[in-house]
Amino acid sequence: MTTTTEPAMKVWIGCLACYNNGQLVGEWFHAIDADEVTLADVHRGSGGSRAGCEELWCLDVDDMPVHREMSPTEAAEWGRIVEDVDEHLRPALLAWVRSGNYVAVGTGDLPSVSDFEERYAGAWDDFNEYAHQLAEDIGLLADVPEEVARYFDWKSWTRDLAFDFTVEDAPGSGVFVFRNL
Ligand SMILES: [Zn+2]
Questions:
Q1: pTM (2 decimals)?
Q2: How far is it, in rounded angstroms, from Cα 163 to Cα 20?
């Protein structure tokens, strides 16, 4: 098993009117707080907002599962979904989204946490380690005599098995394994 670190999802929220006037007015905020950020919060460093300042937008994102601009409302939804998941599972949830092979809620990009929990098969050194553990758990070679089992073709069994899974690098080292259902 590998250890993982907590994602620090942040968004740079800027004023669209100022941005369109060629002025970068904004600040970094935690994604989960994004929908509570006000015009005043964003303009604090620039002497306050002016007439026309109205809409806020996440112009840059850091450590978010999707790397694109988004509304503060969407950023906060990402923050809440990730916070709803047990802390030790958060990096795995983000990796699942990053893989692109994940189940989204409705028509958006936000991941379905229940589908994540159903598919997540743990953090491992590599897929090989997972495959060996799985073989043991299901008793793959349990009824096979030792002298036959030793000729079992692990390489090709593991290769075929891998088609039913999504494997994504974990932060630091190791991989996360997800079932393709
Ligand atoms: Zn402004």
A1: 0.79
A2: 47
